[in-house]
């Protein structure tokens, strides 16, 4: 029990708080280095924006984790958020489905529009928002229930199906879309926690798409997986972009290059540069971006 | 020599050998040529030497202690045969009289013959004790010397030390187990004596409980009735009411504390809740008897029900309040221990906070919650004071919570308080009740364990 408690303490969101505190410390060194930052370089806006965020500031108590980030996320695109540890990319991601609400000391300022509606508006129900904006976490976190119940969890909560047959169909379809059905079709009643790490993560993706969200947020979805499982997840992301808008935070620049159309580079809580993935990785406009992608820090 | 002085002396020996051995090894290390290899720390040799001098002497001392008394008794009775005294039965009494003469006055009050025995007794006692001290001390000294000579840098001191620690831990664990076994057997033996007098079936299935036997045969109640059913029904009824109060309240307050309460509220509310567990049950008892029971009676009469002034309901309600912290505190701990990632996973799918709690957190925390409820249940079943004061002593066979009932534990207390002969069915009944109670709680535990194993959702 103690072990688990420790894990609970170490896992997010407290991890995020620590990161935020780290950011604050680093800010002083940044000032010392006198790194040049005036505004985001590149094209933060797009034509058919699904999400449109303006001047987002996030604070953990008195520490500012994100400074004035303005970024559009286009419909049906895969956008990768990259940057060194503690740069605020996860915090930014968690603003998009108001997951930061679960952290008491977290405060979000600025405007975040989903389909032109402010998701931080008083009347907005974060529960409905999270049904529209699904999330896949860094560590696979299947519920300690059967594979079937894991996928059926969301549809049952939201009453998406009216009878057992429809639910069966939806579960099967979600598992097929997540590329897991062939592997688990004979043991749908087996516990989800008994699967391998990669399978668990695909189960979590199946669970997310079963709710039929419009956007899927992925917080380093492959960082706890081996290369083969990672390849499968990346393949899956490429298929999913047909139906969903995907925002993915990743530490692997190769992964960002492989799966995304646009890439945003975060540094010390600021959005430094955003642009086509090709351009960012071949011809970065900002000095910091170049340093990061060539591996001089991060 | 007194035992305490002997033990202190042994400890001094142990400390001495610790330092000697440590010194010896340190010196040996210093004289080594190569200095590279990692060495066993000298203190481990010290520990081993100390334990080597202490343990054998202690064991011998304990054994001698055990045989000392029988030995002295047999010696003195051998001596007494010269006086052509006493059958076996009287011997004990006779010896007791002599042994209890601890002041000069008492000795003077003894008869001349007994005084002689008294002096002989003390003679034997003194020599025996002196011999024992000598044996123990010489064993200690021998082992200290032997240990000093034997110990060298090749002694696997760390390994030996680990083994000794393991043995100590095993000893600690087995003491708890042995005590349990001991209690079970003592209850079991007394119970078999009881069941020799009262048939098992009439005890377990009988519906009348009146353990008092009249002195004269022509009085009312000339034969006692030992039907335990009313007592068990009473126990179940009161525990059920108590759990009915404490499980929902406790679980809900645990959920509030672990999930909804802010940090400051939690840091105040949780200790206050836990204080409930610290209130003496006597205090709960008179609260139940003087405040709750009359209140319930008044309430019942105002709606036209007849309520006994001591009722199962009053006792059950107060007991329920008393055991809330057992449920809430443990449940709170296990709920907080469920990984944050599971909670976020559920919230991320658009589940509300309460849906997350009901469908994810509680199933994952179920074993701990059931554990808390079980603890509460065993407290409720074993609780005596509140029932004595608030539910009465009358062994009514009823499931009506508005009537007076009594419980197993209360009857055990009434059977054993005061001056009692220890071979009547009335007194022995207490042991039989204790046994039944023990078996009941054991069965409950096994069932609960089974339920938990079947329904729990293991998150790692």
Keywords, please?
heterodimer, A: 298 residues, alpha/beta, Rossmann fold, seven-stranded mixed beta sheet, 41% helix, B: 460 residues, mainly alpha, MetI-like fold, 3 domains, 2 strands, 1% strand
Report low-confidence residues of chain B grouped into runs of 5 or more: none
The top level CATH class name of the largest domain in chain B: Mainly Alpha
Which percent range fits the helix content of chain A? Answer: 40-55%
Widest sheet of chain B: strand order? Answer: 1-2
How helix-rich are the residues of chain B, as a percent range? over 70%
Report how far the terminal alpha carbons of chain A are from each other: 35 Å
Most extensive interface, chain pair and sizes: A-B, 38 and 31 residues
The level 1 CATH classification of one domain in chain A is Alpha Beta
Detail the poorly predicted runs of chain A: 1-14, 23-34
Backbone CA Rg of chain B = 32 Å
Named CATH architecture of one domain in chain A: 3-Layer(aba) Sandwich
Mean pLDDT over the residues of chain B: 85
How large is the radius of gyration of chain A? 19 Å
**Quantity of strands of chain B, as a count:** 2
The share of residues in extended strands of chain B comes to under 5%
- For this structure, the CATH topology of one domain in chain A is Rossmann fold
Based on Cα principal axes, name the global outline of chain A: globular
How far from one another are the termini of chain B?
Answer: 59 Å
Strand-and-helix sequence of chain A, N→C? Answer: HHEEEEHEEHEHHHHEHEHEEHH
Q: In this structure, how is the largest beta sheet of chain A organized? A: 7 strands, mixed
Summarize the structure.
Chain A is α/β, with parallel strands linked by helices. Chain A has helices at 2-10, 14-33, 89-95, 126-132, 147-158, 164-177, 181-184, 197-210, 227-240, 253-259, 277-282, 287-293, and strands at residues 41-42, 49-60, 63-74, 78-82, 106-114, 117-118, 133-136, 215-219, 245-249, 262-267, 270-276.
